[in-house]
Riboflavin biosynthesis protein RibD (Moraxella cuniculi DSM 21768), 348 residues
Amino acid sequence: MNTAIMQADDAHYMTLAIKQAWQGIYTTRPNPAVGCVIVKDGMVVGQGFHPKAGQPHAEVFALQDAYNKGCDVVGATAYVTLEPCSHTGRTPPCADALIEAKIGRVAIANVDPNPQVAGSGIAKLQAAGITVDVGVCSDEAAELNRGFFKAMQWQMPYVRLKVAASLDGRTAMASGESKWITGEQAREDVQKLRARSAAIITGSGTVIADNPALSVRSQLLGVDVAQIPTPKIVVIDRSQKLSIGDDFQVLRDDNTLLWRQDILTLLKTLVQKYQCYDVLVEAGARLSAAFIQQNLVDELIVYQSPCILGSSARAMFDFNIDNLSERQQFWLQSVNHIGRDLHLIYRR
Ligand code: AOF
Ligand code: ZN
């Protein structure tokens, strides 16, 4: 295997394949989002992405696209954001489809960490005489599937924790009043986070105080909402205040899990039992603090409103630290404006 023996336009075409893959971001789970672009003589002749588990993979759609347009793919280069599969899952192996199509070279962003694949797709292509280069735009492509990669490697989900806060880090008034601190556009953006998540975790306190629906309902996601698998709702209820069927929006749904054990066990269970690889925490200050303190948050997403709520308002995280050396450190990953608010992504 050659590791990223890059040819002049590899990054350009892989970027197109990554763009394809993003189109499946809300709908493919538990499968990864994957894109493929086929290039012959400097021309894109076919492109495709994996839309949904059970449907064909990206490579098959890209080959089909080329054939539909009457294009020849013999000797062409296929750019795939994930190693083509070698196993028969819900669909036949993509490595075989590429071999049969007489593709000449395959450029791959990342090896598929799924133990059923994990290099065997590459080996199969090479055994058929196809040139394989791995590592083209690997970081950019990895952004597509942080949950899938983490779960395959560690049997733990990728955890995003979202907070909407004021400039001084407050999330509600002392009375609990919090509607609304951030603007409409920021609240709309949360729909994207939910739609990307296989599970949404909240606490019984939030359910009782706010009665949230935690539903995916935006028309602005660019896909038919009916195609998005409904995220599993998890309500952490250690003190057993609630029951399924109670008169709160999330408890009237049999898709909801009431959880009474520790959160580490919950996260492991979400991967093993429910194939939930991307999870979103939308909770109050105490449960959010528990996730942070137990080092279970991969990504902290802050919607920061340009207002000050004062020191009697509620803090983002309800826990105490005695020494500066014990602080919970994050690194700023990206900064964007959303309407009048800031959208900040921090990672561990
Ligand atoms: C590819 N191209 O577009 C995707 C791949 O059950 P299946 O048949 O859909 O297989 C799912 C597995 O295939 C998934 O866990 C991952 O390892 C791989 N996904 N592979 O060649 C694709 N989506
Ligand atoms: Zn495949």
The domain at 9-144 is CATH 3.40.140.10 (Cytidine Deaminase; domain 2). The mean pLDDT is 95. The chain has two domains: 9-144, 151-347. Residues 57, 84-85, 94 surround zinc ion (ligand 2) (CB under 6 Å).
